[in-house]
């Protein structure tokens, strides 16, 4: 662009900077940043926020704070996004104390907090094993006039599930419904996967049973892998009862609920049990979809069982279910984790023949794979190809 005599503007620079960060190319990001400042964009809040966001996403918090300090030195105005981005970065890196320090700085600037900021802090408290502070934070949040949204409920339910305090998670699930929010697949899957994780299999199946007209509990009793305790806790009963009040229990198709069960098992590391359950359901008329297979393929790939993952892909094709790019991303990721870059690249090269277009995730998986094996030449070629195709 510069060689052709076209001077990049603020938007062009920020777009390119964001692209480099998404490619996880820190060196080129830092070089471009020096050029941005050199060309006089020292008062651009958008440019500084883009830089801080990219560094936070890469976990480079020391550098992010240095850019923040430089921002203040140059007299560039900070905004809620600036502080929120730093707070989220610290929370994701497990340093919630620094996140609260940034929050205090923001408050001294009289900048109003957002629900997104509080959601990050809630998530950060759970990740840092400081769940005892969550209640006080919620009280503070509501005192500012902010209300819990679907993401807040999701963070809280996930956090309490991870701590094994399922009664709190179930109560929040009921409250979420009463407040007019419909729990999505992620929330339902988290609850079910937590029940499976703590071997409370019958409770998970009773909850799922309430959503569908299929006897899941009977299926589980057919397998020695599952517990035989039929006692359902009061907490589980609460969520079962709440489903009667939820529009979701009438609107979710059976296959969605089955997918929740499979995702729950996969997330709790019980991939073989999930595969066994799918086989049982198939014999009873269940029609799997892309999500069903992609969930299992991803789980097998992460576990390093790439052959099983490809067998499932073949099974999809036999059932005339066309794998989407997400499915192939999972397969490519599995191959890259094993260091089998040759096979990963061959599969990548065939995507066009399958009618699929690689996305940013596809490229980033391959680039990371090549970087891990030290083939920076191939990684660089993919970065260039990604840029040529306008993928960010």
TrEMBL record:
Pfam families: PPR (PF01535), PPR_2 (PF13041). Keywords: Repeat. PPR repeats lie at residues 9-43, 44-78, 79-113, 114-148, 149-183, 254-288, 289-323, 324-358, 359-392. The keyword Repeat applies. Belongs to the PPR family. P subfamily. This is Pentatricopeptide repeat-containing protein.
């Amino acid at each position: 662009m510069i060689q052709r005599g076209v001077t990049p503007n603020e938007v062009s620079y920020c777009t390119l900077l964001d692209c480099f960060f998404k490619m996880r190319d820190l060196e080129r990001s830092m070089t471009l940043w020096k050029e941005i400042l050199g060309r006089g964009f020292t008062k651009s809040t958008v440019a500084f926020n883009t830089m801080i966001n990219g560094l936070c996403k890469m976990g480079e918090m020391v550098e992010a704070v240095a850019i923040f300090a430089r921002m203040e030195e140059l007299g560039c105005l900070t905004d809620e996004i600036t502080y929120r981005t730093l707070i989220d970065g610290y929370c994701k890196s497990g340093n919630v104390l620094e996140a609260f320090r940034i929050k205090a700085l923001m408050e001294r600037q009289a900048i109003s907090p957002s629900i997104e900021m509080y959601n990050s802090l809630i998530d950060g408290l759970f990740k840092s094993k400081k769940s005892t502070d969550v209640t006080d934070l919620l009280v503070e949040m509501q005192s500012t006039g902010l209300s819990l949204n679907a993401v807040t409920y999701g963070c809280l339910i996930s956090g309490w599930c991870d701590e094994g305090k399922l009664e709190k998670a179930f109560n929040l699930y009921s409250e979420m419904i009463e407040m007019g929010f419909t729990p999505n697949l992620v929330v339902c899957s988290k609850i079910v996967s937590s029940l499976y994780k703590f071997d409370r299999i019958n409770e998970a199946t009773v909850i799922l049973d309430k959503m569908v007209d299929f006897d899941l509990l009977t299926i589980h009793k057919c397998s020695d892998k599952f517990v035989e305790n039929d006692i359902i806790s009061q907490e589980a009963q609460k969520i079962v009862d709440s489903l009667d009040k939820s529009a979701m229990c009438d609107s979710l198709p059976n296959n969605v609920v089955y997918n929740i069960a499979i995702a729950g098992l996969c997330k709790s590391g019980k991939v073989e049990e999930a595969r066994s359950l799918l086989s049982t359901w198939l014999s009873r008329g269940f029609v799997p979809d892309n999500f069903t297979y992609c969930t299992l393929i991803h789980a097998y790939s992460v576990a390093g069982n790439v052959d099983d993952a490809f067998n499932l892909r073949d099974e999809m094709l036999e059932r005339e279910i066309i794998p989407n790019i997400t499915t192939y991303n999972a397969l490519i990721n599995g191959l890259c984790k094993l260091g089998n870059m040759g096979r990963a690249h061959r599969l990548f090269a065939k995507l066009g023949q399958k009618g699929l277009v690689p996305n940013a995730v596809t490229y980033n998986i391959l680039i990371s794979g090549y970087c891990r094996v030290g083939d920076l030449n191939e990684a660089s070629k993919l970065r260039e190809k990604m840029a040529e195709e306008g993928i960010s």
